[in-house]
Design goal:
Blueprint: H1 2-15, H2 30-33, E1 39-43, E2 48-51, E3 62-66, E4 76-80, E5 87-96, E6 101-110, E7 124-127, E8 129-131, E9 144-146, H3 147-159, H4 167-174, E10 186-191, H5 194-207, E11 211-215, H6 225-232, E12 236-240, H7 264-278, E13 283-285, H8 293-301, E14 306-312, E15 324-328, H9 335-342
Parallel strand pairs: 2-6, 7-10, 7-15, 8-9, 10-11, 11-12, 13-14, 14-15
Antiparallel strand pairs: 1-3, 4-5, 5-6
Helix pairs in contact: 3-5, 7-8
Length: about 350
């Protein structure tokens, strides 16, 4: 009878799982029991920020942490394309971990400057070369401007809330199709000299003031990588100073600029080459400032919308868009002289 009971009990235990393998009831290892580390990236402040034109963007910040309490703010990469120009821009925040990439985006809107009265005129400044007087450099002649003088001019423009139109906006202004704020001004630099890259470009970025370089494309290739990086900054645009016409050879005409005497076919070929290299050029600065009816016709037929001379003056509505004047900025003039020339 006892044997029968034992057999019955064992049968029941077998049915209910008493014979399970040891590994089925082994507790999980410590490694399996550990919690997986997670990461978070959150923005402080508003996800959309609106700025007035010439306003200063102040980064509201962000918080990046891991679930085990580590502060990861220093590992966040922040990239921005904000420019001092009306439009919509982005600030991107990226946290890269071994497991994943976390990204957040903030939108920044720069508002159009309010126009109460149309600007009676727009000074288009003409610079050439710069020298670093802070480090003992000197200028060769009146076309060389000291770095400290250029800084003083940029600070004045920034502090007095000037607006910096694009070439497209200026052409529409000349044609009477657009109003511009009363304090509007454009900074141009002829030739594309080394000091433009070394001195003018970093200051343009620092003060968020766009500058326009009129470059001779046979002297410098705008498609080189470092040139493209400068253009991508948003504070330098390149326009044409012709491809290979910045030379003498037209006797008895102005400064002798060859472009005045060139055939229409040769001139159009030159400007077309320049336009193709620059890709976005719409404007020409005449070499030596020399121009005549021949050069104006060539510029038009090559597809450009405006051309600048070196004649002194400010741009006004109704002017000939292919013979626009500029304000030459020379060495040795005081800040007050600069102010007087643009007001």
């Amino acid at each position: 009878m006892k044997k029968i009971l034992v057999l019955i009990i064992c049968s029941i235990l077998i049915i209910t799982g008493c014979n399970k393998k040891t590994e089925d009831i082994t507790p999980p290892s410590n490694q399996d029991a550990e919690e997986k580390i997670t990461y978070s990236l959150e923005l402080k402040g508003e996800e959309t920020i609106t700025l007035e034109y010439n306003g200063t963007y102040e980064e509201p910040g962000f918080v990046a942490v891991s679930s085990d309490g580590k502060d990861l703010n220093d590992e966040v990469k922040v990239e921005s394309n904000i420019k001092n120009a009306p439009g919509e821009y982005e600030v991107t925040y990226t946290l890269q971990t071994e497991e994943e990439t976390l990204t957040k985006t903030r939108k920044v809107v720069v508002k159009e400057m309010e126009i109460t009265e149309n600007a009676p005129f727009v000074p288009v400044l003409m610079y050439h070369y710069f020298y670093d007087d802070e480090n003992g450099e000197t200028g060769a002649d009146g076309n060389y401007l000291a770095k400290t003088d250029f800084i003083a001019q940029l600070e004045y423009l920034k502090q007095n809330n000037y607006y910096f139109p694009t070439m497209k906006e200026l052409r529409e202004y000349v044609d009477g199709k657009r109003k511009l704020p009363e304090k509007s001004i454009i900074l141009t630099m002829d030739d594309g000299a080394e000091s433009n890259y070394r001195i003018a470009y970093p200051l343009a970025v620092q003060y968020q003031i766009p500058i326009i370089w009129f470059v001779v494309t046979s002297w410098t290739d705008p498609n080189m990588e470092y040139q493209q990086q400068i253009i991508k900054s948003g504070y330098v645009s390149m326009e044409s100073h012709t491809h290979d016409m910045h030379k003498a050879g037209c006797s008895g005409m102005g400064h002798g600029g060859y472009f005045q005497c060139v055939s229409k076919e040769e001139g159009i070929k030159d400007l077309t080459t320049s336009k193709e290299m620059l890709k976005t050029a719409t404007t020409v600065a005449y070499p030596f400032g020399d121009y005549n009816d021949n050069t104006k016709e060539i510029v038009k037929e090559a597809g450009y919308e405006m051309a600048f001379t070196t004649e002194w003056g400010v741009v006004k509505p109704g002017m000939d868009p292919y013979a626009l004047p500029r304000v030459r900025i020379s060495a040795g003039n005081s800040l007050q002289t600069f102010i007087n020339s643009i007001t």
